[in-house]
Amino acid sequence: MTTVATKKIDLREAQKDQSMEKQKEMIAGNFTRLARAPQTGEKVSYTFVPGNINELVMCFDMVGNFPEINALQMGMRKKSGNFIFDAERAGHSEDVCTYVKTDLGMVYNGNIGPTGERLPEPDILLLSYTGCFTFLKWFELLRHQYKCPTVMLHVPYQGGGKITENMRKYVVKQLKEEVIPTLERISGVKFDIDRLREYLRESARAEDDLVWVLQTARHKPSPIDAYFGGVYYVGPIFSAFRGTRDATEYYRLLRAEIQARIDAGLGPVTPEGNMGEEKYRLVVEGPPNYTNLREFWKMFYDDGAVVVASSYTKVGGVYDFGFRHDPEHPLESLADYCLGCYTNMNLPQRVDMLVNYINDYEADGLLINSIKSCNSFSAGQLLMMREVEKRTGKPAAFVETDLVDPRYFSAANVKNRLESYFQMVDQKRRAA
Amino acid sequence: MATTDQIIQRCQSLFEDLHFTAAREWKAAEPDRKVVGFMPIYVPRELIHAAGMLPLGIFGGGDQIEVIQGDAYYQSYICRIPRSTIELFLTKRLDFVDGMLFPSICDVIRNLTGMLQLIRPDMYAHYYDMPQNYDDRVGGEFYVNELQELRHDFENLSGNEITDAALRVSIVLFNRNRELIKELYILRAAEPWKVPATEAYLLSRAGMLLPVEDHNVLVESYIKAARSADRPRRDNCKIVLSGMFCEQPPLNLIKSLELAGCYVVDDDFMLINRWMQEPVSETGDPIEALARAFLHHSTKTSATYEPIEADKGQYLVEAVRKSGAEGVIFAAPSFCDPALLERPMLQDALNAAGIPYIAFKYAENSGQMQPIREQAGTFADSIKLWGENA
Q1: Do residue B135 and residue A177 have CB atoms under 8 angstroms apart?
Q2: CB contact set of B158 (below 8 Å; sequence gap of 6+)
Q3: Mean pLDDT in residue range B103-119
């Protein structure tokens, strides 16, 4: 069914490196900026990925720190296990989110960030409560630790499957009455709406290119892996860079590299070079496991499985159904962005999205990676799986891991399940 | 006059009846009656009542139901209340329910809204989002609009207009209910041997299943009977229970605490009947009154945001002081995000106030009480031997 793509990359790999290098520089630069904040006097805001209002934070010359990103980086560096252990020893339950415990464990160990530099204490905790109850308690725990100011942005959940005018007004009102005045007070910088408009304009440019990249997975073979590769592609736009020229430049570079891969008929780049023959096209629901990300990915590409669409790459913003940040309606647009993040959507909406992906990207089926730590994603996934199977006629499978707790990644179990799943897809094909 | 035993026997029958016969009978008594279920922790029952419908508390299946189908809907690391609730629906025990409200307590209950929307598309399933911003002009405006939307939905569901007058009548009835529950809790704190924790629990739980008018009569009768009952006073210590606001403990667990030497003098079992710390205004715009009461007189709990760091956990310290308790038992359901994430901060507040505590976890179907009894017994002994009143 698919074109075989087995060429070894040379020049194109170098092109790929250009966007990767750009992203590395951006991330390292932000960590350095954070580390130097006590000397430079820059004010530091801590906030979350879903519902982050980065453009607004930038209006106050603040530098952003994202505890979730620190936690996942620690997971990838095999450091999260000890941090989780330290947090549990300090009295945090083994049952709760391991992102939280990794972050707290990091704080208990001197708050040394992923690049080895000490992260500064927050001047403000910007609690954007979007799509995850744990956020609420996470920042109460950090406030308990740091005794610093906190400002809350409560983003109502789309329980009825739509964004209502009441929700939008509520978020905008909180921005006007609570968030902006607090950020002005902490930073000493007066809010300038035209500056915000300019950042939003920049965001929309990057969003256009990100969507273009993600939608190239409709090609056969797909030039990208929209889950394992996707977590890198969304890095800049989900964090401290949305609204910056750096982000726009990153996505421009990435787009050019992916275009080159399409032109060459190539599949995705993996940690071991070009992927071989594309045998299975999958849609994945749920976050990845970060402690064993490469091992997990290898289980896919070794068997010729490529992820053509994923819900996780929408957790920091859903752009592929038309939403863009809008400089003409800056605060309303920020509200719609927050309200529209994936985990703020109700289950029927999430099922619709996955069904849409399977059809639109001509996928062979759905794989759910259910995360022990994340009830926002995980509660209801078994029903979602059945619904998607019922509506698409395509097989679905379920694996269980965790975000950053190495105790919950059992390679043998995951591999067994994946292999059984691929056999199931083969059988379905033969029966068709 | 009914005795406490007679009243509690009735409450126990209601509690054990997972076919909800009383609610079914209420519905069948008149054509076009509707029942709206709700989950912990708070919904404005006044609005359901004012539409002529019965608010019905769905607090899981406890230890009386074998969860077979419900387990197929949840991973092992998710608490038990949603799986037994799904079981209740799939086994048709709740087939008479016309609507369900899922309050914003945690992500699991939130996602249960969508699950019921998929499983029971014929039923009204509404996520009840409470503002975490308590400013009248911000969270208040949002909340008033949400309440108006709910009012409109209930009018459609019931076929009855919810007039301001009808809503005020409902507010008066539920104010009375909250007042009676408060009286019950005050009596228990003062003379806990007269109001055993299991009885207070069953009486309170009956209020989740009965029309408020009937429950008011029941609570009045119980308080009267309990005051005059001659019951032996034991050498127990007084404790506050914290963390049981959603998935309910098995009745045996509450009994075990008492048997281990603990008088429960405050708890957070069913916060809905004590959510409002002050009566809701019975005059003026009733929707505004419900919103104002929520914003300014809500109880504090792990499922809500505390805007002021210095106030964190002070509600628990205050509960200990007001009830004359000598310690706190943190008992949280396994995998309960709100209770378990909050607990270290509450423990810090208790440490600062010099209040002793212990902690354990349970599930609504926990069967082994011996370890809990031993832990609670040791805690009670340590308070008696070395506590402030020793």
Answers
A1: yes
A2: B34, B51, B52, B53
A3: 97
What's the confidence (pLDDT) of residue A6?
Answer: 40
Question: Taking CB atoms and an 8 Å limit, are B112 and A97 in contact across chains?
Answer: no
User: Terminus-to-terminus CA distance in chain A, angstroms?
Assistant: 13
A159 closest CB neighbour out of B77, B129, B306: B129
Residue A167 to chain B, least CA–CA distance (Å): 7
Instruction: Give the pLDDT confidence score for residue A15 in this predicted structure.
Output: 43
Q: For A252-308, write each residue's pLDDT tens digit.
A: 999 999 999 999 999 999 999 999 999 999 999 999 999 999 999 999 999 999 999
What are the backbone dihedrals phi and psi of residue A171, each rounded to the nearest 5 degrees, phi first? Answer: -65, -45
Whole-angstrom distance, CA of residue B39 vs CA of residue A221: 48
Tens digits of residue pLDDT in B172-226: 999 999 999 999 999 999 999 999 999 999 999 999 999 999 999 999 999 999 9
What is the reported pLDDT for A39?
A: 96
Give the rounded percent of residues in chain A with a pLDDT score beyond 90. 94
Given this model, what pLDDT does residue B384 score?
87
Domain A37-194 has CATH 3.90.930.60: no
Strand pairing class (A305-310; A280-285): parallel
Query: What is the Cβ-side half-sphere exposure of residue A303, based on CA atoms within 13 angstroms?
Result: 21
d(CA A50, CA A155): 10
The reply to whether residue B77 touches residue A160, judged by beta carbons under 8 angstroms, is: no
- Domain locations in chain A as residue ranges: 11-16+204-431, 37-194
pLDDT in tens, A45-100: 999 999 999 999 999 999 999 999 999 999 999 999 999 999 999 999 999 999 99
Residues A167, B142: C-beta atoms closer than 8 Å: yes
At residue A278, the 3 state secondary structure works out as: coil
Q: Is residue A73 within 8 angstroms of chain B, CB to CB?
A: no
CATH architecture of the domain covering A11-16+204-431: 3-Layer(aba) Sandwich (3.40)
Task: State yes or no: pLDDT of B388 exceeds 80.
Answer: no
Pairing of strands A273-274, A269-270: antiparallel
Q: Which residues of B touch A166 (CB under 8 A)?
A: 142, 145-146, 149
Provide the pLDDT for residue B386: 81
Do residues B340 and B245 lie in contact, with contact meaning Cβ atoms separated by under 8 Å? Answer: no
User: CA of A133 to nearest chain B CA: how many angstroms apart?
Assistant: 6
Decide whether A11-16+204-431 matches A37-194 in CATH topology: yes
User: Given this model, what pLDDT does residue A13 score?
Assistant: 47
Within 13 Å and on the Cβ side, how many CA atoms surround B81?
Answer: 31
Q: How far apart are CA B201 and CA B270, in angstroms?
A: 9
Determine whether the interchain pair B137/A133 forms a contact, defined as Cβ–Cβ distance below 8 Å.
no
Structural contact between residues B121 and B113, judged by C-beta atoms closer than 8 angstroms = no
Are A140 and B305 a contacting pair at CB < 8 A? Answer: yes
Section A326-333 average pLDDT: 98
Asked if the Cβ–Cβ distance from B337 to A132 is below 8 Å, we say no
Residue B122 φ/ψ, nearest 5 degrees:
-80, -15
| Euclidean distance between CA atoms B4 and A408, whole angstroms | 50
pLDDT of residue A4: 38
A24: Cβ contacts below 8 Å, ≥ 6 apart: none
Nearest CA in chain B to A131: B107
Whole-angstrom Cα distance, residue B51 to residue A340?
33
Q: Provide the pLDDT confidence category of residue A31 given band limits of 50, 70 and 90.
A: very high
User: Three-state SS for B252?
Assistant: helix
Question: What's the CA gap between A375 and A287, in Å, rounded?
Answer: 11
Which of A100, A133, A345 would you mutate first to test chain B, the one with the most B CBs within 10 A? Answer: A133
Residue B382 and residue B78 in contact, taking contact as beta carbons nearer than 8 Å = no
Total Cβ atoms within 10 A of residue B252: 17
